[in-house]
Automatic annotation (TrEMBL):
Keywords: DNA-binding, Transcription, Transcription regulation. Coiled coil: none annotated. The keyword Nucleotidyltransferase does not apply. InterPro entries: Homeodomain-like_sf (IPR009057), HTH-type_TetR-like_transc_reg (IPR050109), HTH_TetR (IPR001647), Tet_transcr_reg_TetR-rel_C_sf (IPR036271), TetR_SbtR-like_C (IPR049445). This is TetR family transcriptional regulator. The lineage of its organism: Bacteria, Bacillati, Actinomycetota, Actinomycetes, Kitasatosporales. Residues 20-79 form the HTH tetR-type domain. It comes from the Bacteria. The keyword Amino-acid biosynthesis does not apply. It comes from Streptomyces rutgersensis. Residues 42-61 bind DNA.
């Protein structure tokens, strides 16, 4: 029969696991809300999407800036982890690249909002931008290399230039409802295709 100290240890582990789960659910919900409504979306909307109370949001993220930065890091990690997973599951390196770029575009919506939200803290934003490049450029390079090795795209496209080009296409996304960056990003990707795989 477990002793009191073992029960307390199990209870503490369960509480920590619940807190980690709540944080992940909040980050996923906030990312969805930020993509749909921007980083100025009401916190109550994020709490409702996550199925938690406002107090839970503020316990994990005392300020909006804390939440935005955490979502940014969370999305960078999700994008970084998605690359290898998509390569393993997609069957075609070009399909994996295409799906990864879709995730990257969703992330960029939040990233541009973050740049606006953190304009007073340029040092903090620069550090996050360096982290973004360190994590995502190698993933994009791997996707491009695999698609080129499979003869599905023209070789020679640099990951940084592709990511920067996609970022430029996404920059004005919220300003004009007639503008759909995803359509242009899709055209950009199709332009990488080898003629024989088109």
């Amino acid at each position: 029969m477990p002793g009191a100290s073992e029960s307390k240890g199990a209870s503490a582990r369960s509480t920590r696991a619940d807190a980690v789960r709540n944080r992940q659910v909040l980050l996923d919900a906030a990312a969805e809300v930020f993509v749909a409504s921007g980083v100025d979306a009401p916190i109550r909307e994020i709490a409702a999407k996550a199925g938690v109370g406002m107090g839970t949001v503020y316990r994990h993220f005392p300020t909006r800036a804390d939440l935005v930065v955490a979502v940014y890091r969370h999305q960078v990690e999700a994008c970084a982890e998605a690359g290898p997973a998509l390569l393993a599951a997609a069957g075609s390196p070009f399909t994996a690249l295409h799906r990864w770029v879709g995730l990257f575009v969703d992330f960029l919506v939040t990233k541009h909002g973050l740049a606006h939200a953190m304009r007073s803290d340029s040092g903090g934003f620069e550090a996050l931008h360096a982290y973004f490049l360190d994590r995502l450029v190698p993933v994009c390079e791997e996707l491009l290399d695999r698609a080129a090795d499979a003869g599905q795209i023209e070789p020679g496209t640099q990951a940084y230039e592709l990511m920067r080009g996609i970022g430029n296409l996404c920059a004005g996304q919220g300003d004009d409802p007639r503008y759909d960056p995803r359509r242009l990003v899709d055209l950009l990707l199709q332009g990488l295709r080898q003629p024989k795989s088109a």
